[in-house]
Amino acid sequence: MVTADNMHAFSTPSVPVRAVPFVEAFRVWCRVALLSFGGPAGQIAVMHRILVDEKQWISEERFLHALNYCMLLPGPEAQQLATYIGWLLHRTKGGLVAGSLFILPGVASILGLSILYAGFHDVQLVQAIFFGLKPAVMAIVVDAVLRISKRVLKNRMMMAIAVLSFVAIFFFNVPFPWLVVTAGTVGMIGGRLAPAGFNVIGGNQTSAPAGPAETPAIVMHTVRPSWTRALLICSVFLPLWFGPLWLLKMTLGTSSVFFQEAAFFSKAAVVTFGGAYAVLAYIGQQAVENFEWLQPGEMMDGLGMAETTPGPLIMVVQFVGFMGAYRNPGPCSPMIAGVLGSLITVWSTFVPCFFWIFLGAPSIERLRGNRLLSSALSAITAAVVGVILNLAIWFSVHTLFSSVTTSHVGSLRLLIPEWTSINTAACAVAVLAFLLTFQWKRGMATTLAICCTVGVVVHWLA
After folding, report:
1. What is the DSSP string of 99-133?
2. Closest alpha carbon to 395 in 40, 44, 78
3. Of residues 19, 12, 57, 3, the one with CA closest to residue 213
4. What are the pLDDT digits (tens) for 293-322?
5. Measured distance CA(11)–CA(209) in Å, rounded
6. Among 298, 293, 290, which Cα is nearest to 337's?
7. What's the pLDDT at 211?
8. Is 461 left (phi over 0), alpha (psi -120 to 50) or beta?
9. What's the rounded Cα separation, in Å, for the pair 306 and 96?
10. pLDDT digit string (tens) for 186-198?
């Protein structure tokens, strides 16, 4: 079934309707992938800036609707959001291309860095290259928080939900799934009792003006959900997911590091709710204490690689997979084993992500017009604003200070930076990034390029 992102466009002769050419979409997804730094907050900001504001391929309402669904899923929400929007634009082909391109730069970067790390235990060159990127991402994330807040926090109720969400996750470390469930429940109840205060994002399509006549509505490709389609998706993706696991078991046995990595990260792909930070402690503990794939402290080295390269932060698991196989190579050479281990880990982590989207997206799209669901998603979106703000502050503090401690007073959690550890060079680059973004209105690519260049110079001079 083909629909337009703005349904009223079909009844307005002056507003043209067009489909996005696949070649153009391919180029844009390449650009999104290469600019996707800074964890989920930065990556969502990149997609919002390019797809909603610049290209106007998808409406604010539909972007947030897709984001809310991806937030509910295990795995990296930014990669799943790219897959979802790619599916809307060009069905399965578009989803596969968008989701795959989103992770390919990160896969290549982490693999190269893992080889350097294992072979030379030195990533100074890479640290110099990416020194200026993290402060620049700060500005992009803040810009995203402000943009989304203006569109979502339209009344006091939405503002209150966002504030309470931020306080809950930042100060009390409330698990993200609990925030989603609570916000959704409040939204559904509020949708019944006071629909005007809660149905914020659901009515944007019909109530917003169509805009200038020369701005086309984009054709979206959706399909009607059915049991036949669901069984087809399962028959394709479940063998892709578990087939390699079975082959590794049959050929190498359960004691093989390759089977252990495939099994462990397949399990992790199902329980990684709340994004990378929520699961890093679990993966780090298992990798160090149980499997002995990593030495203490190496998990943070891997996280540093993931934070300073494009792609989801969960790409740190590729580093874990590489080092685990490198240290337990079996009949292979350590480097070959490491490469195979990293690729097996990536496959086990991201095949499920495509499965969740292709299986559930048609049903989620069909529920877009449901008033109570729209109220629930409005509340969840407001809560997500608080979550993104939490990520932005966490990222900023760890960028500007080299030493940050976590203190607990009862159930209250506080991030306390060591003020003597402030990185003045990073602060200077951050100020430059904010000026480029907010004062001089430079584009994202320009801001990242300038800050990266300045960062390299500053890093080597320091």
Report:
1. HHHHHHHHHHHHHHHHHHHHHH---HHHHHHHTTH
2. 40
3. 12
4. 987 667 767 766 776 788 887 888 999 999
5. 13
6. 293
7. 39
8. alpha
9. 22
10. 999 998 998 888 8
